[in-house]
Structures are given as structure tokens and as C-alpha cells.
Design brief:
127 residues, 4-stranded antiparallel β-sheet, 32% helix, alpha+beta
């Protein structure tokens, strides 16, 4: 069983953020790139802000069982979505372009060979 949540580094030259070590964590959102808000079932049973660079935690509030469901239900009318824009996946890998060019060249060669064979067969039969 995996305990907590681990994050990946955004690039090889950066160290990955500190893992969240709570036994049961639900990520609710981010306050900024270094802080994540979670609902921890154990041991705090409440809303916690985790500083991913320092590895510290700050308890925002603790709640009794079932209260968080009521809070979430009450917040639904205020729920909004924000358009994040078009994702930037970067350039296509070279193998994709090579594969497309290779398959196209093979198909063109097959069509050319088929055309030559059909023309030869027609010439041999004659009019």
C-alpha cells in the first residue's frame, strides 16, 4: 500500500517536491506552485496546506466526519471552471515524422509497382 502522495519534478534539473506523508490524502487544489491544499482523513481529519518546498504542513481546519461532505455540497453552486488555453506539448518526436514519411513512401512504391504491372499486362494482351 502506498502511503501519501509523491510528485514528479517538472524537469530533470529540478528536485521533485516533498512527498505528502499523510496516510489518506485527497488533493483539493493548489494555492500557488509550492502549496497544495488537501483533505487529510488521518491523523488530522481536516483541511491542510502542504508546503512542497519546505515539507511543512499547516492545518486550516479540522472537521467531524460527514461535515466535509456538507461543505463540498454547499460550495457546488460557486464552482467555476477556467479555460487553461491550448496545451503546449512541444515538438513532435522525430520518429513520428519518420514513420509517416516511411509509410507514405512504401505505399507510393506499392501503388507504382501495381500500376506498372497492370500496364505490362495490358500491353501483352494487346487490343
Amino acid at each position: 500500500m502506498v502511503e501519501g502522495v509523491r510528485f514528479l519534478a517538472v524537469a530533470p534539473e529540478y528536485a521533485p517536491p516533498t512527498a505528502l506523508t499523510s496516510e489518506s490524502v485527497n488533493i483539493l487544489g493548489w494555492t500557488d506552485p509550492q502549496h497544495v491544499v488537501t483533505y487529510d482523513h488521518k491523523p488530522k481529519n481536516g483541511l491542510v496546506v502542504h508546503d512542497l518546498t519546505a515539507g511543512t504542513q499547516e492545518v486550516l481546519s479540522t472537521v467531524n466526519d460527514g461535515v466535509i461532505d456538507d461543505i463540498a455540497t454547499n460550495l457546488l453552486p460557486q464552482l467555476v471552471t477556467i479555460d487553461g488555453g491550448r496545451p503546449d506539448y512541444g515538438p513532435q518526436p522525430a520518429w513520428v515524422a519518420r514513420s509517416i514519411i516511411g509509410v507514405t513512401a512504401i505505399l507510393a512504391a506499392l501503388v507504382a509497382v501495381a500500376f506498372v504491372l497492370v500496364m505490362r499486362c495490358r500491353r501483352r494482351k494487346g487490343p
